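Worked example 2:
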Amino acid sequence: MRRTFVWLAGFLCVAQAWGIAQTIHGRGGITLPAPPAVEANPVSDDYFGTKIPDNYRWLEDAKSPDTRAFIDAENTYTARYLKQARIRPQAVDDLTELEDVSEAGIPIERGGNYFFRKRLAGEQQFSIYMRGAEGGLRQKTAESKGPSADQRLIDPAKLSRDPNTSVGLLDVSHDGRLLAYSLKEGGADEVGVHLLNIKTGKPLEDELPAARYSSVSFSPDGKSLYYARNNKQGTLLYQHLLGTRNSADVLIFGREFRGEPLTGDDLFSANFTDDGRYLVIEIDRGVPAKRVDIVFRDLTKPDAPFEILVWGLESRFHAIWANRAWYVRTDYHAPNGIIQKADPGVLPDAWKIIVSEGSDVIDSWSIVGGKIYVNRLKDVKTETLAYAFDGKLAGQVDYDAIGSASGVLGRTTDRYGFISFSSYILPPAIYRLDTVTGKRDVFFQSKVSFDSAQYDMKQVFYKSKDGTQVPMFIAGKKGLKMDGSERLLMTGYGGFNLSETPRWNPQWAWWLEQGGWFAVPNLRGGGEYGEAWHEQGMFEKKQNVFDDWFAAAQYLIDQKYTSAQHFAISGRSNGGLLIGASMTQHPELFSAIWCGYPLLDMLRYQKFKVGSYWTTEYGSADNEKQFFYLLKYSPYQNVKAATAYPAVMFFTGDNDTRVDPLHARKMSALVQSASTSGRPVLLHYSVSGGHSAGVSVDQQVQDDADQLSFLWTETGAAETRTNHP
């Protein structure tokens, strides 16, 4: 192969060499000096004869003194900008009203009680509560007068003085006697596992150290804890006998099965069937899984081996044991999903179909109260139907508006199931569903200061570059102008088979309250139309995701919802990759960009944190064929020198243990050196925040205010200046 050299913007000198403005002009009268000087220290990699330079490789080392100095300088620079953002104090006040409210999670029932997370207004974190199931709907809200029937079991404020310490509900023993909960710091993925004796209120001495746990479950008899812990070497399932040392824990499953090795990218979780008969393990091959294997062990038989329910098929499966039979949802020969009654030892081709494949994808399913509940997405809108075990239609769950429903959650034998529901203009509520009568009652609803009646949400369809019809949700205040003068915020994801259904987010609610339009296109790569829709945005077809996004932006501009100078975009994680590609491929379409916890260097992402998991979605630059299409769109390698880039804020933090913050560090330095627009390029780097939720309400309000005040300011009218270069 002929050796080539790709001249990239990474091979830049100092900003001044390209004539970049010495004074940075934000909108709203904000002025800044040039960004902090960052030394370019070129290195080069050879990919199959193509040399790729990297000026900021040294910023990959998060612990080096030079990198820490860089972070400090960038945070100081960003703080200087935010101090001048006139709308920020108002944003803090408004967001406090929207976010500092009482909230609760969906409960689980054990031993005649409900267990759930709840946070009261004025508190920084969720606590874990217990409520008697018999009076479950007579609970007074936090805003009402009178005593509460809820008993607080775990209060993170009593466990740590750090307001960014959070707890999560992992499991409750079948008899309702023991509670397992997680404890974590900030937004990291790793958690410690702790146990509580509910009757005495005292903690058990049994603890598991901070790590990545894919499942934590009490054994049916409540005498053991089964936990699946994963790292780069793989996932291992252990049994911990309560009251013994962790060193005595017994390895139950992992490393290999029947001669086939399990690698670090094979992630699995374990759970027990509701009747306590089986231990079930589902093995995901990659993220997202391209293949799911399921094995089970009959606990009624001493020393029984694991048996195979399904193994070795390049499809996804999820199993539930109910009515003394296995029921499985799969996309095997059915991209939109089917539900079958499974027969171990027989290929799925011979399994009985209970719920047939339809034109609408099965988004989720459950078995509660002896009924199979199926959530389908009809053009990205949730519809829930109930089926009997013979496949006959047994009812449906009606919703009052277009939005997102969680599905009916509960045990197979529970009479009551629980549903959460929300939309972009409807705050969340949790309902208890009687599976016998179909009656639905409110279990919990926050009192959010947001008047849904003032807003409209609609769905439109537009054509992408290749002619594909793509849906998009648009929300705004009733009567909002469509003359191109209004601000608009668009967010998206487009990957990992995840569907972007309308759901509540206080950030987007704030934007709507200010009078801005809000839009979410349902890009390929997601799961909105089944596996075929997902596959059209994977590997070498990833550009389809970006083309769908750009077509959405052009549609919104053409229909005069907004114009380029008032157009803001935001995205996190894989959505941060989308935002990075937006900046490098079509900077002229947007005025302000927020790029959160992003993947940006797609040639090296698989080398850091858990990046290797995602090679089943993107591919890897270690593969020659995949290298060339990754290079074509990888944002970091496609920044161009002397280019007028929009205003951008890169947002990350030390506690992101999923997507390495190196992406945002390197990209901010590179774009600062390349942009000639005179618009601000900022790095917002938190020392407590991370990829996962967990920071305090106060911290979340401050972070959201930083993001939104930046986007709102930088989509305002551009000011004319004659006294600056």
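The longest strand covers residues 202-218. The radius of gyration is 26 Å.
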